[in-house]
Write a structure and sequence with these properties.
The termini are far apart. It is globular and about 80 Å long. The protein has 618 residues and is an alpha/beta fold. Strands 1, 2, 3, 4, 5, 6, 7, 8, 9 and 10 form a ten-stranded mixed sheet that branches. A seven-stranded parallel sheet has the order 15-14-13-16-17-18-19, sandwiched between helices. The chain has a six-stranded parallel sheet with strand order 22-21-20-23-24-25, sandwiched between helices. 32% of the residues lie in helices and 20% in strands. Helix 12 (339-346) crosses helix 14 and helix 17 (448-456) runs parallel beside helix 19. A hairpin with a 3-residue loop joins strand 7 (127-136) and strand 8. The protein has three domains: 2-208, Spore Coat Polysaccharide Biosynthesis Protein SpsA, Chain A (Alpha-Beta Complex), CATH 3.90.550; 247-414 and 605-617, Glycogen Phosphorylase B (Rossmann fold); 418-600, Rossmann fold.
Length: 618
């Protein structure tokens, strides 16, 4: 038995073995004993186990229990979580086996798993890698690679080489082919055993689920693994998030000294889309601290923030930390996933003025059993900020006591003003005579039949979403079938390219839905109450906005767009085509949107926000 800590002690090399089994583990103590037991039961007994505790918050040593008494079992403990690639490389650097196999601590071997992999490699000296069949999704099996998945660690053994895994400092991904297998194989071959001899676990805490939207995403990964640095993350169902490059301009700026009348603001919850907007407060001399929910999803940005300038309050012992900090005001925000933690802070008896800013959305809160806490946040906070006038009206109708709170209306996730830099690009329609529309993000409609009708009139639809093909495959496949030459898929575009990229389009799609609330707030849906985040994207680029004509209903995006002359309202495809083909009207709309785009930035509203925070803090 050997136990090391972070590689600080030298590895005591022993005699060679047939198989080195590397077990990365993080916060999976309940699974780990079963995984080790499945290894101890192997018919192939010439192995060593290198358990790499990747900064786990649990007690891996205790979870290993009596297994540590086996001289073949070694425990390595890293000082903090360094990511899967680094943990695996740490194990590879200590491996003595002719072959290397992997046993994640939430997976299982069947009794002859190692023996079958060893036999396959022994019989095929030209092969560098052997692949076993695997049970997955609890009851399904695959004789080799699982459809739409990379080879899983548990099903593979390979010859020991100098090749190493990609580490977090280079890229974070769930694509294990990209991380290692493709480079290991090179021009060589893999051999399959053809037998199902292992089991890939299936539970919410798996790394690939933490990485992939909609289960998890970048911010869920950051929170779960307590990542302190900016990430370059590219999941197999999304686009590249390069926080290192994207936020460099903000991180490298000197901090602003707190103004003589500057507020000390404690941000509580998460920052959702366009999180860097919050720096506008810091740049104006207000001191920012962050206390974040530990259950974010893909768009719920939490700290440590990749753009800096917000001091982190530790989640452990946060009450004592906040008491020492003595902020002037708590600014809690933004979406339903943070309701439970915001409510915990609200009811902690801190004696600090509390402002609640809510965007998305009351119906999700009801669905997830959070309605009592949400009502408390709207009736017990010292001030409430709503993302639209319609949302405030809805709460006044459903939670009458909320109308007595001091309130303000500001859209919750507006972009930072500096993303508006750059000149407009020439219209694509000016080059080819066709009309070109854009969907910036997931396609929230329109119906495939509408897109087919538009295509017959030579109107193109450009979809910017690397996730759509994976998450909304049925819609994408159908529109490509109906309009193969008029539907175009593009990768995601970050804020610094919004103006140059999207200003090329004649118009852009907001969420497509039909409203039937007939002006009654109690009959409104979330679509009716919401300002889609893509409004800011299209406004920044000066692109007229397309939405259904929902006249007679209370619809937030429609009221705003009509009031400020921002777009088109259509009933059917022919109606929309006619409006798009009206050059004078379209030019007037482009001019109108471009002239008002500053109104769709956080900067334009920050003075009203600060005044409100001061009012509540007074």
């Amino acid at each position: 038995m050997g136990e090391q800590s972070g590689g600080e002690q030298s590895w005591e090399a022993g005699p060679a073995v047939r198989v080195s089994v590397v077990m990365p583990t993080y916060d999976q103590d309940a699974f780990l004993p079963g995984a080790v037991a499945s290894l101890l039961a192997q018919t192939e007994a010439d192995w060593e186990l290198i358990v790499v505790d990747d900064g786990s918050p649990g007690d891996t040593r205790q979870a290993l229990g009596e297994a540590l008494g086996d001289e073949r079992v070694h425990l390595e403990v890293l000082d903090r979580n360094r990511g899967l690639g680094a943990a695996l490389n740490h194990g590879l650097d200590r491996a003595r086996g002719e072959y290397v196999a992997y046993l994640p601590s939430d997976d299982l071997y069947h009794v002859d798993h190692l023996a079958s992999l060893v036999a396959a490699l022994d019989a095929a000296p030209q092969a560098v890698l052997a692949v076993a069949g695997v049970r997955h999704h609890q009851v399904r099996t695959s004789p080799g690679r699982i459809e739409d998945e990379p080879l899983q660690l548990v099903q593979v053994a390979h010859r020991r080489t100098r090749q190493r895994w990609i580490e977090r400092s280079e890229l974070t991904t769930d694509d294990l082919d990209r991380m290692f297998w493709a480079r290991l194989l090179g021009d060589t071959v893999a051999v399959e055993t053809g037998r199902v001899t292992c089991q890939w676990g299936w539970h919410p805490g798996q790394r690939h689920k933490t990485l992939r939207e909609p289960w998890g995403g970048l911010n869920a990964y950051r929170a779960r693994y307590q990542v302190q640095e900016p990430l370059r993350l590219h999941s197999s169902v999304g686009h590249l998030h390069d926080e290192v490059a994207h936020y460099r301009r903000f991180r490298e700026r000197p901090s602003t000294s707190r103004a003589t009348d500057g507020l000390r603001v404690l941000l509580v919850g998460e920052l959702a889309h366009n999180p860097e907007r919050i720096l506008v407060l810091e740049e104006r001399g207000h001191e920012l601290h962050g206390l974040w929910t530990d259950t974010p999803v893909w768009f719920n940005t939490v700290g440590p923030l990749p753009f800096g300038h917000v001091a982190e309050v530790p989640r452990q012992g946060w009450r004592e930390s906040v008491a020492r900090l003595r902020p002037d005001v708590i600014y809690a925000l933004l979406n339903w996933q943070t309701i439970r933690f915001a409510h915990e802070v609200l009811t902690a008896g801190l004696g600090i003025p509390f402002v609640w800013h809510f965007k998305e959305g009351p119906f999700f809160a009801q669905e997830h059993g959070l309605w009592p806490e949400l009502v408390d946040l709207h009736t017990r906070s010292d001030g409430v900020i709503y993302s639209s006038p319609e949302l405030r009206e809805w709460f006044a109708a459903t939670v009458p006591a909320s109308r007595h709170r001091p309130s303000l209306v500001i859209d919750g996730d507006l972009p930072k003003g500096e993303w508006l830099a750059g000149e407009r690009s020439p219209l694509l329609s000016g080059r080819d005579g066709a009309l070109h529309t854009v969907i910036p993000g997931r396609p929230m409609g329109p119906e495939p039949e509408v897109i087919a009708a538009l295509a017959r009139a030579d109107v193109h639809v450009h979809l910017y979403s690397a996730k759509a093909a994976a998450q909304m495959r049925e819609w994408v496949n159908e529109v490509q079938r109906l309009a193969p030459d008029h539907v175009h898929l593009h990768p995601q575009v970050d804020q610094d390219d919004w103006v140059a990229e999207f200003s090329r389009y004649d118009a852009g799609w907001l969420h497509n839905f039909r409203s039937d609330n007939q002006g009654d707030p109690l009959a409104a849906s979330w679509d009716d109450l919401n300002y889609p985040a893509r409004m800011g994207t299209l406004a920044a680029s000066g692109v007229p906005m397309i939405q259904r004509d929902n006249s007679g209903s209370m619809v937030a995006s429609q009221s705003l767009a009509r009031r400020q002359d921002l777009g088109l309202f259509w009933n059917d495809a022919d109606d929309l085509i006619a409006q798009l083909r009206d050059p004078s009207r379209m030019e007037a709309l482009r001019t109108s949107v471009w002239s008002q785009r500053r109104d769709f930035t956080f900067d334009a509203h920050v003075d009203r926000l600060v005044d409100f925070l001061r009012q509540v803090a007074a």
